[in-house]
TrEMBL record:
PANTHER family: PHOSPHOPANTETHEINE ADENYLYLTRANSFERASE. Gene3D superfamilies: HUPs. This is Phosphopantetheine adenylyltransferase. Homohexamer. It holds the Pfam family CTP_transf_like. It comes from Priestia endophytica. Pathway: Cofactor biosynthesis; coenzyme A biosynthesis; CoA from (R)-pantothenate: step 4/5. Residues 6-134 form the Cytidyltransferase-like domain. Reversibly transfers an adenylyl group from ATP to 4'-phosphopantetheine, yielding dephospho-CoA (dPCoA) and pyrophosphate. The record marks H18 as: Transition state stabilizer. GO terms for biological process: coenzyme A biosynthetic process. Substrate binds at S10, K42, L74, R88. The lineage of its organism: Bacteria, Bacillati, Bacillota, Bacilli, Bacillales.
């Protein structure tokens, strides 16, 4: 059995920071499932299917990365995929407290699946999907923040 990791998130939209973690994770694990999860605390701009298509487009050069949507618990999904790890990106100290809470709950649900944190490249340490959406909404240049297909999708979304 090869090493399998789950890289979960809402990816609304996928940013260069997300892509950095996914790409680096694909070098470490045999298979990385990028799992689009529903976050009840967030109101997404893109549908789950739209996010999946964007992720498939921007990761098409990574043959060991698979994009899927899941509506249940992350740990149930990880068990279904026989994953040994959850791969999470950390931008700054402010991310740590939230991630520690989630990891602690996940360990209660299944302590056989490890959570591994990868520090985001410094150039993306400030980057979030929320910031990208805000800049795009007001017509700001997001070309260094997201892959080109995502910038185009955001432009179209805000024209609607």
């Amino acid at each position: 059995m090869g090493s399998i990791a789950i890289c979960p998130g809402s990816f609304d939209p996928v940013t260069n920071g997300h892509l950095d973690i996914i790409t680096r994770g694909a070098k470490v694990f045999d298979t990385v499932y990028v799992c689009i999860l529903h976050n009840s605390a967030k109101k997404p701009l893109f549908s789950a299917d739209e996010r999946a298509e964007l992720l498939k487009t921007v990761t098409s050069h990574l043959p060991n990365v698979k994009i899927e949507i899941h509506t249940g618990l992350l740990m149930e999904y990880a068990k279904q995929k026989d994953a040994s790890a959850i791969l999470r990106g950390l931008r700054a100290v402010s991310d740590f407290e939230y991630e520690m809470q989630i990891t602690s709950v996940n360990r209660v649900l299944d302590d056989n699946i490890e959570t591994l944190f990868m520090m985001t490249n410094n150039q993306y340490s400030f980057l979030s999907s929320s910031i990208v959406k805000e800049v795009a909404k007001y017509g700001g240049n997001i070309s260094e923040l997201v892959p080109a297909p995502v910038a185009e999708a955001l432009s179209q979304k805000f024209k609607e």
